[in-house]
Amino acid sequence: MNTMEDYLNQLKSAFAEEDIEDFNALKEDLLEQLAICLDEGQTEAEVVARLASPEEIAADYYADLSLATAINAKTSVVPREDIQNVFIQTQKKRMQKVIKTAFKVVKPLLLLFLLTSCLFFLVYIIKELNEERNLASIPTVLSLFLLALILQVSKGWFIKKQRIISVIAIGLAGFGVGLLLFFLVTGQSMYTGRQYYKEINLTSNNHVAFSFDSDADVEITTVEVSSTEKPSLMIKGKFKESDIKQIENASYGNKVDLTLDEENIFDIFTRTGRSEVIFFIPKGTILDDFHLGLNCGDLRLLDIQTKKFDLDLFSGDVYAKNIIADEGHVDSDYGDVIIEESAMNLTVKSVTGKTVITEMLGDLTIEGDKGLSVLKFLRSDNVVLNNHSGRMILEDSEIKKLAATATDGQVIVKRTTGALLLANESGKIVSEENQGTLELKNISGPTIAIQESKVNAKVSSQSGFIKWLQDPSQSLNVTASTETGELRNDFSEVPNDENYKIEVKSQTGDVKILEKVE
């Protein structure tokens, strides 16, 4: 049947004479649908081919008619089971029609998605072949599967060649399965690059700068060598061919500026593994810049003198010792940062990692979120510590000015000299055996101060508990007040020393000034 006339003649023969008016209504609908399709550029044969057979349409019509008759009849002459069966079959056919209609609507969108995905993987394969000399195994397999799906989805538009298209689709899918098994057995499912080793020797000890960035896993070490040697760099590990080409073709002079394993959308199926980089720095050489930007790595940095010291690390640990720099920046989201015996003005940013800095000379700023900061033996003009909910501990340091603030974390300062400001919102403040001037501010968290020596201090809180323990042998001018909380001041009758004043205020919290008992 290639014409609508033939189709309608067969459909009419399936209708009873008394139902010819319903047939004529159906005929008008079909002719109207044909006219619309012809206007859209479809052929009459294509429209007729997509219609259900005349027998199916007639069967649906009489099934609906029987169901309506059975439901509306005053006297039931049809068994209940038959009515239920007719209803279920009718609903199934209607559901099938809904699904077919929905598929016709979704089909172009699905085909567009499959074509876009296939095009992406084809570009991936071409790029990998051109730049890496490697057949991208997984994109190749996925391309074959996608081509098979595209053929299956679109074969309905090719009525005379559906069987050939199905055979081709099955062949592509089978070939894809075979390739996938081969790649899995041979361990070639991911591109891993090739093993590579390179020593890069610089030409001068003057104005030396090292800059190295990588999104892969890297272990980095610095080694101090004899002052008679030239700065150099050793690279070892598995690298992509494009990175090896970059290393080989770069000109260095007295500077190294490399960016390797840079992540992009065409590296989804690349796994080069951990590489190793060693910087050899002659003793006494002052670098213009030392920069490392890594996504993941472990750093062991020793004996570096540089104008700029810059580390940007997403995850991994940093251990640095004897770093002398004009300025330093360390940004580590999830790793631990340990810096010992160094001198520089340093800024550290950390999200959840641990920061440990000991025996450092220079100004320090630490911006944290949830991590732990441990600072000991600092000699600084200015120290700024900001932490959201982590823990900050400062001990045995000499600081001209300290500002330590938190939201709901802990601020602990012990045996430190200077103008000390400790502020918190709902967390805990602990001050122990500090000297200089002390200002403690807490909104709702507890504040605890322990002092043996004299100190000038101001302590304030809105609703938090305040506890001050003081050596009873010291004469102090202590004033304490709270509006609605409990108040106790064991030093209210102690002779005052006007040189040292302690002022404690709270709005609604309890205040206790107690004698320290050994």
Question: Helices, strands, pairings?
Answer:
Elements: H1 4-13, H2 20-39, H3 44-50, H4 54-72, H5 80-132, H6 137-154, H7 162-186, E1 194-201, E2 209-225, E3 232-239, H8 241-249, E4 255-260, E5 275-282, E6 286-287, E7 289-315, E8 318-332, E9 337-350, E10 354-361, E11 364-368, E12 372-376, E13 379-387, E14 391-395, E15 398-406, E16 410-414, E17 417-424, E18 428-432, E19 435-442, E20 447-451, E21 456-461, E22 466-470, E23 477-482, E24 487-489, E25 501-506, E26 511-515
Helix pairs in contact: 1-2, 1-4, 4-5, 5-6, 6-7
Structure description:
With 518 residues, the chain is α/β, with parallel strands linked by helices. The protein folds into 3 domains: 106 residues, no CATH class; 172 residues, no CATH class; 138 residues, no CATH class. It has a 26-stranded mixed beta sheet that branches. Helix 4 packs across helix 5. It is elongated, with a radius of gyration of 40 Å. This is DUF4097 domain-containing protein. Keywords: Membrane, Transmembrane, Transmembrane helix. It comes from Enterococcus caccae ATCC BAA-1240.
Summarize the structure.
This protein is α/β, with parallel strands linked by helices and 518 residues long.
